[in-house]
Amino acid sequence: MSGTTHGHADAPHQAVFTGRVLARLEALFPQYPTKQACLLPALWMVQEERGWISEPAMAEVAEVLGLTPAYVKGVVTFYTMYHTHPVGRHFIQVCTTSPCNLCGAEAVMEALLRETGCGELGATSPDGRFTVSEVECLGACGFATPIMINDDFIESVTPERVAGILQGYK
Ligand code: FES
User: Fold this and answer.
1) Shortest-distance atom of ligand 1 to CA 146
2) Which atom in ligand 1 lies closest to the alpha carbon of residue 100?
3) Distance in Å, CA 126 to ligand 1 centroid
4) How far apart are CA 23 and CA 6, in angstroms?
5) pTM of the entire structure?
6) pLDDT for 2-37, tens place per residue?
7) At the topology level of CATH, where does 90-166 sit?
8) CATH of 19-78 among 1.10.10.1590, 3.30.70.2860, 3.30.1490.20, 3.30.590.10
9) Residue 52: is it exposed, middle or buried by C-beta count within 10 angstroms (0-12/13-18/19+)?
């Protein structure tokens, strides 16, 4: 059960690509046609290290890969999997697309918002543990309602199961 590193929006930017992280990125370069093509994995590294991708971090990625900050920002904001603001240690995604909605996804989402203390979608719980987000089809429509907590995929979630599931994420 992996969790992201917690970060604050107003904390000064500390370079991500130094030492071990820079070495990991540079080790990828020979596997891609150009170093610019390493953008998506570079962004994952930032998110692993910091929990989210700030504007200064986007600028750092741009510099390391020889891209413009505007291009990097365009890619970050295109993909919902990248966080552009701080999130809780455990990022929860719940499918609320029609098939799951018909099977009670809305009630699961409400239970998640209540039991985590987040209160609303996109907000972080006061203890910093959770952020809940709704997503489109997670590809498990036969097992409504599926949720993801960090990289863990959990099927057939009901409102009654939510509290027990959350206990596994401190
Ligand atoms: S609609 Fe929910 S997993 Fe497909």
Assistant:
1) 3
2) 2
3) 29
4) 23
5) 0.79
6) 444 456 677 788 899 999 999 999 999 999 999 999
7) Glutaredoxin (3.40.30)
8) 1.10.10.1590
9) buried
